Amino acid sequence: MIHFLSISIFPLLMIIAGASDALSLRIPNWLTLAIFGVFFPLAFATGMPLSVFGLHVLTAIILFVIGFLFFSAGLFGGGDAKLLAAAGIWFGSSQALPFLVFTVMAGGVLALCVGLWSIISMSWEIHDVSWAKKLVSLRPSVPYGYALAIGAILAFPQSWWMVASG
Predict the structure, then answer these.
(1) What value does the mean pLDDT of the chain take?
(2) What is the DSSP string of 113-127?
(3) Which residues contact 37 (CB under 8 A, 6 or more apart)?
(4) Residue 76 phi/psi, 5° resolution?
(5) CA–CA separation, 55 vs 147, rounded Å?
(6) How does residue 118 score in pLDDT terms, banded at 50, 70 and 90?
(7) Looking at residues 156-165, what average pLDDT do you find?
(8) pLDDT tens digits, residue range 91-113?
(9) Residues 22-37: pLDDT tens digits?
(10) Which long-range contacts does 106-112 make (Cβ < 8 Å, 24+ apart)?
(11) Is the pLDDT of residue 17 over 70?
């Protein structure tokens, strides 16, 4: 039962986080805390070695700092930055790079789609000469939590959790 939970709870919570962000452009704090908090009892229950545990925690700290920098630069929302760290603890240093690569790829596709949709919907509203001003000031809201969820789900099959579950 513990191994089933260790391989199913994280992807399920990430799907909920991605859907929440896609639908409302918000990731509830309770959900981010749940993703982060469930890691600890499951790491203990599955017998994660202390050295591996430490690398997972260190990865979460590093990703939190990166997420905070992205938030400070206006590239991420606060919920996205927190979700990045919460998801990162599940991957540790060994799988952080695949998680980030999949997330960046999904985020790029998502940003292109949202940007194109914004331009298309804006063109329906343009009836005067100020369309160029509207296009230059276009800042679509991209739900990066959705990209984080996709990246997490794509990287999870190679994670420590799947190897430990056999």
Answers:
(1) 86
(2) HHHHHHHHHHHHH--
(3) none
(4) -130, 155
(5) 24
(6) confident
(7) 80
(8) 999 899 999 999 999 998 988 88
(9) 899 899 999 999 999 9
(10) 106/146, 106/147, 106/150, 106/151, 106/154, 107/142, 107/144, 107/147, 107/148, 107/151, 110/142, 110/143, 110/144, 110/146, 110/147, 111/142
(11) yes
First and final C-alpha spacing in the chain? 13
Alpha carbon of 157 to those of 75, 99, 137, 142: distances in Å? 28, 11, 41, 26
The one-letter amino acid code at 19 reads: A
Contacts of 166 (CB under 8 A, 6+ apart): 3
Which tokens in the block code for residue 120?
A: 């298309």
User: DSSP letter string over 13-81?
Assistant: HHHHHHHHHHHHS---HHHHHHHHHHHHHHHHHTT--HHHHHHHHHHHHHHHHHHHHHHHTTSS-HHHH
CB–CB of 91/159 below 8 Å?
yes
pTM for this structure?
0.84
Using alpha carbons, list the distances in angstroms from residue 51 to 91, 104, 120.
14, 28, 51
Tens digit of pLDDT for each residue in 52-85?
999 999 999 999 999 999 999 988 889 999 999 9
Residue 28 identity (one-letter amino acid):
P
* Residue 126 falls in which region: left (phi positive, over 0), alpha (psi -120 to 50) or beta: beta
